[in-house]
Amino acid sequence: MDEPRKHQVSLRGASAKEITRDALLEKVSQQRELRHYARRATASAIFVQRVWRRFKVTKMVALQLQEEWENFMNHHAGLMSATQIRSDVLRPFLFFVTCLSTRRKKIRNSDKFCMERCFKLLLESVNSVDSRKNYCSLATGALEERRIWTYQSKKLISLCLIILAEFDKSCAGVQDIVITSLAMRLVVHLTDLKAWKNITDGNRPNADLAVKDLVRFMGIGESCLYVSIRRYINTLDVPFSSQTNRMVLTDEKFMITASAMTLALRPFHMINSEVGGPGPFDVHYVAEKYCVFLLTIPWLVQRLPAVLVSALKHQTILSPCLHTLLILKERLLNEMSEINQSKITFCPNVIPPVGWALANIICLATGGENDNADSGRFSQGFDCVSYVHVLINLAENLMARLESFGCISKKNQEVQSDIEAFSQPVEANFCGSDATHGSFRMSYLDFFKPVCQQWHLTDLLAIIKKEFCVQGSETLPHNKEKYFGKLELLDVAYLYSYILRIFTFLNPTVGSLPVLNMLSFTPGFLFNLWAALESSLFQGDNQTSEDHYLSASETSRNKKDGVFEKKQNQGNKDVANKWVSVLHKFTGKSQSGSDGTNLVDEQAKPIQVDEDFSDVWDIEPLRHGPQGVSKDLSCLLHLFCATYSHMLLILDDIEFYEKQVPFTIEQQCRIASALNTFVYNGLARGFGQQTRLLMDSAIRCLHLMYERDCRHQFCPPVLWLSPARKSRPPIAVAARTHEVLSANARLDDASTVPSMGSVITTTPHVFPFEERVEMFREFIKMDKATRKMAGEVAEPGSQSISIVVHRGHIVEDGFRQLNGLGSKLKSPIQVSFVSECGLPEAGLDYGGLSKEFLTDISKAAFSPEYGLFSQTSTSDRLLIPNASARFVENGIQMIEFLGRVVGKALYEGILLDYSFSHVFVQKLLGRYSFLDELSTLDPELYRNLMYVKHYDGDVKELFLDFTVTEESFGKWHVIELKPGGKDVSVTNENKMQYIHAIADYKLNRQILLFSNAFYRGLTDLISPSWLKLFNASEFNQLLSGGNHDIDVDDLRKNTRYTGGYSEGSRTIKIFWDIIKGFEPKERCMLLKFVTSCSRAPLLGFKHLQPSFTIHKVACNVPLWATIGGQDVERLPSASTCYNTLKLPTYKRPSTLREKLLYAISSNAGFELS
Length: 1169
Fold this sequence. Notes:
It holds the Pfam family HECT. The chain is mainly α. The protein contains 46 helices and 10 strands.
């Protein structure tokens, strides 16, 4: 504020309050603004009054003109002259209709009668052969007449299109239908030179220019042609499925629809003809409006009569649209996203406009002249290159919009009903439920059926081959090549990769099964994909990727049932000289010398690899996971993994190992190494939500290959270990990381976080088996520590469970006393045995008797004679639940109890003498079994099914049906594989369904009840995440300890001596010499005698707790007895709780051998003491 002046003078007198200069200026400014606002308010009021007066006067004049026009029309019933129509009919008519209806975009009922009379008069005039009475003759008259005629015609076209847009069939009366029909007929006549009756050779040029000017007017957007047609088509009936026959329209409605579509296509026809009219005409503008407003209409093709659809499919219409969608891609996609679908009846809120554009283009581009999508070919000369590129752009944009709203999740959750981004159907009661949305999505996916047919992919591959063959002979102009280019395998891969994602999102139940079926059975396609991937992943190519997939595709088409000849395989697998040399060194023979073997009976020989070559299986381009690969490579990899994982489900062992289709064993190894490297690094380094589908498909494919290798090894063991060979953490660290991840497994994005725990959970095979066993033991150690901290475990023996078991009823006694304990069975148990004579056996249980109890109860319960389990027909006689166990008293509960027994053995580190079938273990590990695993369960049935699969004749000759016969307690039961299966014969068409139904029943359904029960008991003590560290064979090894023999040298190295014995004692030296001379079975009996288990510890005897001990039992034999040849008579005894062998001081080897064999064969321990 300024300093006050020394001498202030007030002009208002001494009584007025003093005011500062700044305050005065502010006050003056406010008063000026108030005066300015008052002037503007006054001007606005005057303007509003003027507009209102103008509207009122105009309306009054329009009503007066309408009344005069009606009187005039009533007095002139006949046909008037063209001049009279122009001046006395159209001029007032257009004025009052524009004022009263057109400007308000709503037609008054009082105007409809006037419109009907006017349109009838104009149609009668246009059809007149008298040039004086033909209204269109004015278009060829003087300049002023032509100008007025053009102006009035454009006004008439705009009015007719408004009538079309306002048409609503749901509430339209007879008059509405008649007026709309007349309006469409009028516009069609005005814009069709052939409909004019007054054309002569002299006036044809002027008439042609006039018509083209009207068509240009419709095409450039001033008439809102495509907006009006869109609004009209959206009111037509919608068949709920694309397979439903189209609605039959009445004659008038059909005429309206046909006229509307004729007008929609008329600008395209003028583009394709010689344009000589005034003014520019942009072809892309017309195609842009057509694509944005018509191709995005839901069920466009299904709403229209079939006779009209063929016109939309014509190349002169479809090709400009495809080209425009490529050239103006970004602008068109933005315009499509801004379309308001809120007033479209039956529009599902899960499909945005770009999705309907995609579906409609597929429907228009495929299908023959009869509108049949099964015709199996594109139309002659169709631009498939632009077609594929357009589908890629639209599908990519569709998925981006769906993903942007978080609609894709790990479990493919259903779309939430409150998403309102795309549309809100009017009939909320019809479109509001999840079930309805699901039906809409299924109906939408019907549009993609042509893409899911083999002819579609085959034609595209043929174009790729053709373009490759003529490469260089013809080139596109530079400006066109920028947008269109040529068709490559990568383009096809992008297309089907997006199609897979769309199916997965919209149909989570079935997923992309229809697409995968087609891709898997298309000859050469999978081989082409791998050839393209191989050229990118493995350096040193001698051929281009085009050479690979083109030659493979050409060869595969000539092979029966899509099977490649080995000669072709061998000729295409030589991609890198370095790799060929390495593989030859691994195998020790040439590639052409690998012959198939009968892999149903024996395993294939895997490639042998030295540890020095382990780096060759760690693929360098994939060492950074999904984040380190390009978009193109990610697309190829996703499509390959999804397709090949599907094929692996139906590929039997004969095809995989013997025929080696679609890949040789060497190629399978390279595929496994690429996936193994990619998945490991993706999990270790982390991956984002956008690459989740890629990782999921890669993990699935990797698991299927690894499980097949576990059954019939074809990969070197070092291949699976290679990615983590240099970066594996310590066992304790890995175990704790895994437990933390398992505890947080409920988090949605847990798998996207870089974590060694996710590696252990998903790909435990990158850790050696020995390390995983140590990890398993670490989990149990951590669990025991947790239980101890929680007070569940106190001092030894304080909370132990005491049971009394009769040796003759060990299963029944154990079940009765332990079955109800559940997870409490983790606590120690103290066992007291009662001999078969009914006498309590001597000895205190410090762990040894409980181990013996678990071993004996498993031996009795798992015996086939007991009825709960049976043995497979394979040579190894593995255990599997008996189908008749359900009829045994408490059979299911007994199997659940045996699961707890096995869990207790694993928890305590006790080895059992039995191994389970691969199929049964798969169920315990939470995995589904497929056809190729049937050979491990029933080789004979597997061979029979393969005979049916490869049967050359008519399968009906075998007289099979969809049933299976089972025997139970001497009775045979017929089980239907599907409802009504006994009445369904097996044919060549459904034999694959029959084969997989049989396999599914034998491998999954038949044992599901028993495996679930066993799993419940097992997981009471062992966490499921711990079990998933191992495959089926490793689980058996974890349970039973591997080979049925022991390593004497390892046992000797880890044996303790007490009581006076040492390694140099005479009796000890004799003992080890005797042990080496034992049969393997006798050595196992010795181990069972001392430790109560016949199997060696899994990681060697250094892990046996307590250590194997030989205790000296001093036996003083008189000198005269020794001289006379007498030796110690006492038998060896054992303390199984301390793993101690009490060995007397025998002098002679024969005596020691005799006494030791007698002791270990007597099935007694303490009683020999």
